[in-house]
Amino acid sequence: MLAMNYRGPFRVRVDHKPYPELQHPNDAIVRVTRSCICGSDLHLYHGLVPDTRVGTTFGHEFIGIVEEIGPSVQNLKVGDHVLVPFNIACGSCPFCKQELYGNCHESNPEATAVGGIFGYSHTAGGYDGGQAEYVRVPYADVGPMVIPADLHPDDAVLLTDVVPTGYQAAEMAGIKPGDTVVVFGAGPVGIMAAKCAWLFGAGRVIVIDHLEYRLDFVRTYAQCEAYNFRSMNDPVLFLKKATDYFGADVCIDAVGSDAAGSALQTITGRKLMLQAGSATALHWAINSVKKGGIVSIVGVYGPTDNLIPIGNVVNKGITIRANQASVKRLLPKLIDHVRSGRLDPKAIITHRVPLEEVSDAYHIFSAKLDNCIKPILIPPSARV
Asked: What distance in Å separates the CA atoms of residue 347 and residue 374, rounded to the nearest whole number?
């Protein structure tokens, strides 16, 4: 089969890889119909996440047709078109029972933090992902959900990660009616976080980024304010002035380890790898939120340490909430939001690229070319 193959930082290509096999009675084999490239994939592509091994197939956002099922699978049948959450979750460990599907203890038992994730570094279990023609799906009775007939496939593929992550960013922020919410990052997750902030009653939503085409997009899509930090001497001071010098009620870090905006953070976190990525957005979030405010983190950082102003967290009485999105828990309410028209996920898709051209797709997305917001990959069998 054709599959994306990671060859090292900034080097990916399509190769022929072996067809995946059932390894457990509760596995399924899924023929991919759509997969996405995520900002989290770019952290891997840029070499910022430890133990990302040559030969890995990325892709934690995908949907597809069930081709084979193991003898223990009860909830799926061959031919089902399924949405597969990026979390690989067993459904029965203590964390899954708390609906913390991103922290499953069985799918990634050697880790003390994150559960298994499709197509990510071996810190998340080392599972191959969906930027391929076929993928093995463990715990097939737990994660995959048959796509409702009235749900467009383009919406479905974005419900595997981007929409739930943006929604959970707003949910974790504890937004109250009338709150001022600042979102750092106008990538797909930041765009969704800004859009979802209104669902929780935000009175004002501000997005900070440095790419004008993304700022223009989020202004229209999320009906929010959006500002370029390159035009500011100090983004923290700008946000303080914009909030009567109190600070925002809520700040959301939707950027993570690839953040620009600070020479010190860039050099130590992205060039010299002395910390787990550039924590610029998190630094700004902590310093821009009001006393007693909430900082919600969904931006990805590589293990384990970062330079952040922890003293300000203590002295300001800030609450920090963070996690991988629990996709399975959120799907029912998000599907309702899509059906009602409150959310239109597929509107953020800007590029449809054949799987065979995955190298070009990564370059376009990484270099922010051609006004790219969200690219999806289409395997050959899905184009027939």
From this structure: 9
CA gap 10, 24 in Å, rounded: 34
Please choose, from the candidates 241, 244, 239, 237, the residue with its C-alpha nearest in 3D space to the C-alpha of residue 227: 239
247: left (phi > 0), else alpha (psi -120 to 50), else beta?
left
Q: In sequence order, which residues have a C-beta less than 8 Å from that of residue 99 and are 6 or more positions away?
A: 326, 328, 329
Separation CA 107–CA 91 (nearest Å): 10
**pLDDT per position as a tens digit, 195-229:** 999 999 999 999 999 999 999 999 999 999 999 99
Tell me, what DSSP letter sits at residue 18? Answer: P
Examine the domain organization and report whether 304 and 363 are in the same domain: no
124 plus 173 within the same structural domain: no
98 is in which domain, residue-wise? 2-161+326-383
Name the 3-class secondary structure at 95: helix
- Assigned token pair, 104: 């499953």
Query: What amino acid occupies position 77?
Result: K
Q: How many domains does the chain have?
A: 2
pLDDT class of 384 with cuts at 50, 70, 90: low
Q: Determine the pLDDT at residue 16.
A: 97
Strand intervals (E) in 86-148: 87-88, 116-117, 134-137, 145-146
- Whether the full predicted model's pTM is greater than 0.90, yes or no, is yes
| DSSP string covering 297-342 | E-S---SS-----HHHHHHHT-EEEE----HHHHHHHHHHHHHHTS
